[in-house]
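dumping this here so i dont lose it
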């Protein structure tokens, strides 16, 4: 695709970029799966996996014109980006895991202790192993002090305030009810002709691809594994496409697949 003077491109072109980006992300996830993961690498692996699902969900929602739903999930993508940036900056992966375990334990315990919902707490999900039970008791005596950082503060600390203002904060208007909430949905659901044109929402697709490349890059940079250079070249290629419409990222993706097949995308021992 040649350079395009307009700000956004066709849905088809974004779908093509999505297919390659999903392929690259899944390939990286498999590299994690083949290696032993400590707490940090498990969280990085799972963050990338969650982001992969969110990426697909946003494009699927766009296809059915649920743009508000897409922006809602887009905000969670950016939240996860800022989250792992903060965990790395403060070396707090273990603290976060401990806090998560304790908070989930308390949530499950509330269900088990409520007489109105005790019958719901019979699944294996609610039964702790002896090891987890001991851990929960210890944490109850000395609760974790970790606290989630504010997305705005994290964005500012790494000079990504624009991503907070025009991505996270903008998408928040679709998370929290506004006076014109569902206005476009009304015309979509009823198929009544709208009196005025709504935005085409191509920005949702473009911004989502950008956010996903940022998460992928952050995961690669934070992990202790040695990754092949082609991954960063491919990421740069996708971003170049988002800015210019140049689809040379496709050739880079083909090279990525060949390198992955012949050598693997990770040079660290499995």
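and the seq i came up w/
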């Amino acid at each position: 695709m040649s350079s395009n003077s307009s700000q956004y491109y066709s849905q088809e072109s974004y779908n093509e970029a999505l297919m390659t980006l999903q392929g690259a992300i899944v390939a990286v996830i498999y590299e994690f799966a083949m290696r032993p993961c400590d707490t940090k690498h498990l969280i990085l692996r799972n963050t990338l996996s969650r982001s992969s699902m969110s990426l697909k969900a946003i494009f699927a929602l766009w296809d059915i014109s649920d743009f508000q739903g897409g922006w809602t999930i887009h905000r969670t993508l950016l939240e996860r980006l800022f989250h792992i940036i903060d965990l790395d900056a403060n070396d707090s992966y273990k603290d976060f895991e401990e806090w998560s375990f304790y908070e989930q334990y308390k949530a499950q315990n509330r269900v088990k202790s409520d007489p109105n919902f005790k019958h719901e707490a019979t699944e294996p999900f609610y039964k702790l192993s002896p090891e987890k039970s001991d851990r929960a008791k210890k944490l109850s005596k000395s609760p974790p002090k970790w606290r989630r950082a504010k997305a705005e503060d994290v964005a500012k600390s790494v000079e990504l305030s624009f991503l907070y203002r025009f991505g996270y904060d903008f998408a928040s208007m679709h998370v929290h009810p506004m006076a014109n909430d569902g206005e476009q949905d009304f015309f979509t659901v009823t198929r009544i002709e709208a009196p005025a044109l709504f935005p085409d929402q191509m920005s949702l697709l473009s911004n989502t691809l950008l956010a996903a490349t940022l998460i992928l890059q952050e995961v690669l940079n934070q992990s202790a594994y040695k990754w092949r250079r082609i991954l960063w070249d491919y990421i740069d290629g996708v971003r170049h496409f988002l800015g210019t419409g140049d689809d040379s990222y496709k050739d880079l993706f083909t090279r990525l697949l060949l390198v992955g097949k012949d050598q693997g995308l990770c040079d660290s021992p499995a």
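The chain has a mean pLDDT of 92.
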